[in-house]
Design goal:
Elements (H helix, E strand, L loop, with lengths): L5 H16 L20 H15 L5 H4 L5 H14 L1
Helix pairs in contact: 1-2, 1-4
Length: 85
Amino acid sequence: MTVTTHPDLLTGIADVLEEVAGTPRDAVVPSASFLNDLDVDSLTMVEVVVACEERFGVTIPDEELERLRTVGDAVAYIADAGTAA
């Protein structure tokens, strides 16, 4: 699934977080921190990344994982990776 618009990516990430971490969809906003606001620990974050890779058809290397601190960071990374593919 190729998604290039930020609202679509945000919706998709909200779907993934709800499914993987039980995060309420309305809490998934660009400024939300995965750790501090959404209580996504490092192990769960790996599951979120794998689900996002499958859903959006992108690869998120382990070294990039540390840089994805907020939902907005993830949206921007996936949008950039999707246009580079």
